[in-house]
Amino acid sequence: MLQRGKVIILDGGMGSELERLGLTGIPEELNITHAEGIKRIHRSYASADIITTNTFGLNRIKYRGKYAIKEVAEAAVANARSAGKKVFFDVGPTGAMLEPLGTLSFDEAYDAFAEIADITRDIVDGYIAETFSDVYEMKACLLALKEHAAKPVFATMTFDASARTLTGTTPETAALILGGLGADAVGANCSLGPRELFPIAERFLSCTDLPVIIQPNRGLPRVERGRTRYDLTADEFAYWCERYAEAGVSIIGGCCGTTPEFIDGIAHLGGRAVAPRQMELKTRICSASHETVIENVVICGERLNPTGKKKLKEALERGDIDYLIDEAIAQQEAGADLLDLNVGVPGIDERATLTAAVRKVQEYVDLPLQIDSSSPSAIESAARYYNGVPLINSVNGEDSVMDAVFPIAKKYGAVVLGLTMDGRGIPETAQERLEIAERIIARAEEYGIPKHKIMIDTLVVTASAQPALVKETVEALRLVRGLGVKTALGVSNVSFGLPNRGLLNKTFLTMAMTCGLNMPIMNPLDGEMSGAVRAFAVLSNTDESAERYIAAYKDYKAAAPVAAVGGKEGDKTVSTLGDCIRKGVKSRAAELTQKELERSDPMTVVNDVLIKALEDVGRQYDSGAVFLPQLVSSAEAAKIAFAVVAERLPKDAEKKVRIMLATVKGDVHDIGKNIVKVVLESYGYDVIDLGKDVPIESVTEAYKKYNPAAIGLSALMTTTVPAMEETVKALRAVGCPAEIFVGGAVLNEDVATKMGAIYTKDALEFVNKLKTLL
Amino acid sequence: MNFSEIKPRIHAYLGFGGVGIDARTDEIAEECLASLASDARFRYAYKTFSVLPAFLCGEPYAEFLRGSTEAILCVTTLGAEVDRRIKILGRTDVTKSVIYDACASAYLEQLADEYEERFGEDRTYRFCPGYGGSDIADIKYIFELLRPEVSAGVTLTAAGYMLPSKSMAGIIGIGKRAEKRCGDCMLAAHCEYRKEGGRCYNAAK
Questions:
Q1: pLDDT of res. B204
Q2: In the predicted model, is pLDDT for residue A569 greater than 70?
Q3: How confident is the model at residue A166, as a pLDDT?
Q4: Lowest-confidence region among A114-118, A645-649, B90-94
Q5: Radius of gyration from C-alpha coordinates of chain B
Q6: At what angle do helices A399-412 and A430-446 cross, to 10 degrees?
Q7: Which residues contact A10 (CB under 8 A, 6 or more apart)?
Q8: Candidate CATH numbers 1.10.3720.10, 3.10.180.10, 3.40.30.10, 1.10.1240.10; the one for domain A571-648
Q9: Quick check: A67 pLDDT over 80?
Q10: ipTM surpasses 0.90
Q11: Which architecture characterizes domain A290-552 according to CATH?
């Protein structure tokens, strides 16, 4: 339908024309109430190749008009058809923020866009999803349009002058994610004028082989007496569009402020051959705001994997994925470039667990993820909900595995790690492993997956069992690199069964890097290993002027005593556990607790030291001698101390009192609740934290599951106090006899009493009232 | 921005009132402000109205704007990365999350105040729905008129909360001057700052 390889011209701004014609009200409804006016605008853009419908805000989340969505959509398409050109349906964002920062779920966003696709797929020629600022929402939109309508989709995001979207996505990352999801053209619109958008267009052009689409505003607007004014002339706009065409942009149109005159002025570019351009297609994976290019050597953190980790295994078995968060943050801080994520524990629902784990980890860490599973169903679901382009670990030379995984990788744009083994196991020679790699790459190509989306793992064998084969693994790296793909190895397997494993791992890592290893899968917290990677970067001249190396080691002193991480001035002066709690010195709490336990039994430490110190802090807080940050510091230090003491107590000896906390439905501010949590924990309570924006039925279900001794609810604004009342009511309705404590900025004694709850003004008062009531 | 300018506000938010802040908290606040400088993506969307939108014609807005020649509606934010940082700190370092949260609020107030200097000296402070007995849910009118979802990246939830959370929606009168005072605040009767003799908006005064 649209000729590939030729420049396509889109229409221009709708809002400015509506304003000029004096058409006010909900813009989408004008399709019905003022159809002639809308048609007139569409016809005035007839010099364009494609007309876009007046439907930017038409989705069930944003649209609050009086007509049915179907009725508006059909009228909008009919209006656009009157121009006699191809018609693309305009799809804008929902205007709501997606989870986890917002409250709209990925599935709700998907359903809203799918509804649009279902209504329009037979009456339009394509879709333009535009002005998105959250790439995750765009992912929901693209999946919905692709899965519900077999029509071309142009996808544009809106960037600010620093070339990032509001949620921190760069043009390269946007191109990677949207292109991977099957967008037929990718690019930028709105926010900036043609001059300011030019460098952003150039960045799109140099990183994707897809057609690039650009729809600038009419320059940067200024607001004059409440009205938006644009100063750029049609000639200036045409000058820039000419330059876009010369640079290789395929699809050009106008956004806010542009009028028919502007499109008439660039219509002559339509049909011109798209200018050739240079681009570099690298092996890249990304989250929404962090891209990792697989080149030189990057570190894949291996620690989100239950193999050999008893605590993580147990946590996953009881469905506790929070355990992964700290491990993920620690690896990011240690310098990992991406993180492997594997939840493979026998007997669990791997699909559900892996999906939940992906969602949880990406809330806290923006490193790209390697989705590591042997279950195609788990991989599919994880890739779907992942906010980015993941690396999938893995396929091997077996046709059945490739046939199951490659379609998933293709659909979600993922990079795939191929293992050089097949039904016969791991071949002995490097040459045979190369052959499997070639087979994997060829097979991927049949699925439309290009070589730069494939990585190869030449597989580490253990030096103790098969000493002769270690060099084959390394040699295979060299051969595989010759195919033009990047490589990976699970390095630490090499030392299994031998003493001083670290020495072997480090030496092997260096051998492998020398032969072309790009991605060791290893423990980034192991300073020797990550140090070897840093040193290799200097010695192989990929760390220019040793800049990163120097930054990492500028304070390095040989044989320096291990310093307490994050230690602050004054830490050294703390000599007893009581002092440590009173001064809130977290970094020394564990060590001083151990010391205290050498002298006293655990319960004495709790009652005579910890609680006493906390009470001192509490008194000082009440009298205004210490303040909130200090109170919280003390609580955090006491929490660490309690954890150390708990290890010394016989299991179940001292059953902790359980308290359940939640920030009520609709409320997204939870800092107060978090303070209460840490203070309660510092007093040794077992706190179940349900989080924020917690639906009423989730609170009642959790009550039944955990049977807490007391419940704490928080709400910040008057608008969510009703939700708090209903939560209290619902708890009572299911027979909950536990005391319910409420707090938050707009709460007070009267409001609390009225809803049958106990008011607490702060965390300490909560603890004090608990002590008297329980 | 000169960090020392906003410190009194941070101290007030953290409850230090007129008392001097301790060295450790101050040190962490410095770290938080440095982190904020890179985390924050400040946006400010506004429109000027010479004819007042309907919701501003009722009290207490009408009284607040009496004598103004124009009214500005604004929505401003520090962006989503700040929320993310608070969330991560809530997991790894609660003390720092509390301090960062207070710093972020003060930082946004300061950036917005600085931005508003372009509206001239004859202007009021930002009057936000919730002040002076007004309904906090009136934020929805500002959103309808401004559509800050695209321009500032701020969204409004069904329960009337703005996201990202470090965001403000307000009203400024042009052509007159007015300073903040406690009488306009919905929390005045129960205010913890006032109990200590302080003010949330300007601890120095």
A1: 40
A2: no
A3: 85
A4: A645-649
A5: 17
A6: 50
A7: A48, A49, A50, A52, A88, A128, A213, A215, A251, A252, A253, A254, A263
A8: 1.10.1240.10
A9: yes
A10: no
A11: Alpha-Beta Barrel (3.20)
pLDDT score at A565: 39
Q: Do B95 and A101 touch (CB under 8 A)?
A: no
Q: What is the pLDDT of residue A687?
A: 93
Asked whether residue A642 carries a pLDDT value surpassing 50, the answer given is yes
Lowest mean pLDDT among A289-303, A420-434, A611-625, A744-758: A611-625
A487 touching B, CB under 8 A? no
| Candidates B94, B136, B166, partner chain A, best to mutate (most A CBs within 10 A) | B94
Q: Give residue A556's pLDDT band: very low, low, confident or very high (50, 70, 90).
A: confident
Round to whole Å and give the CA distance between A231 and A365. Answer: 42
Would you call A164 an interface residue with chain B, using a CB distance cutoff of 8 Å?
yes
- pTM reported for the whole predicted model: 0.88
* Domain range list for chain A: 8-269, 290-552, 571-648, 658-773
**Residue A655 dihedral angles phi and psi, to the nearest 5°:** -70, 125
Same fold, A8-269 and A290-552: yes
* Domains with residue ranges and CATH for chain B: 3-177 (3.40.109.40)
| Residue labelled with tokens 């398409």 | A77
The single-letter code of the amino acid at A131 is T
Residue in the block written with tokens 């693309």 = A88
Query: pLDDT for A36-52, tens place per residue?
Result: 999 999 999 999 999 99
Contact state of B91 with A190 under an 8 Å Cβ cutoff? no
3-state secondary structure of A682: helix
**What does the alpha-carbon distance between residue A92 and residue A132 come to, in Å, rounded to a whole number?**
7
> Which of the residue ranges A301-305, A612-616, A761-765, B192-196 would you say has the lowest mean pLDDT?
B192-196
The DSSP string of A304-353 is E--TT-HHHHHHHHTT--THHHHHHHHHHHTT-SEEEE----TTS-HHHH
Give the CATH fold of the A658-773 domain: Rossmann fold (3.40.50)
Which residues on neighbouring strands pair with residue A292, listed in sequence order? Answer: A285
CA torsion, points A42, A43, A48, A53, in degrees to nearest 10?
Answer: 20
Q: What is the pLDDT of residues B52-86, one digit of tens each?
A: 888 988 888 988 888 889 999 999 999 999 999 99
Q: How far apart, in whole angstroms, are the C-alpha atoms of residue A382 and residue A251?
A: 33
A671 with B97: Cβ contact below 8 A = yes
Q: Which residues on chain A are in Cβ contact (under 8 Å) with B89?
A: none
* Bridge partners of residue A393, in order along the sequence: A372, A417
DSSP 8-state secondary structure symbol assigned to residue A291: E
List all residues of chain A from 662 to 681 with a beta carbon under 8 Å from chain B: 665-671, 674-675, 678
Residues A744 and A774 sit within 8 Å (Cβ to Cβ): no
Domain A8-269 CATH superfamily: Homocysteine-binding-like domain (3.20.20.330)
Of A628, A636, A668, which is closest to B15 when you measure between CB atoms?
A628
- Residues A385-395 pLDDT 10s: 999 999 999 99
Q: Which residue of B has its CA nearest to A169?
A: B81
The pLDDT value given to residue A3: 59
Q: How far is B203 from chain A (nearest CA, A)?
A: 15
Contacts of B21 in chain A (CB under 8 A): 627
pLDDT at res. A191: 85
Answer yes or no: do B150 and A133 touch at CB < 8 A.
yes
Of B47, B98, B128, which to mutate for an interface test with A (greatest number of A Cβ within 10 Å)? B98
Q: What is the CA radius of gyration of chain A?
A: 30
Q: Give the residue on A whose Cα is nearest the Cα of B41.
A: A166
Question: Mind listing the pLDDT tens digit for each residue in A251-295?
Answer: 999 999 999 999 999 999 999 999 999 988 999 999 999 999 999
Per DSSP, the three-state class of A14 is: coil
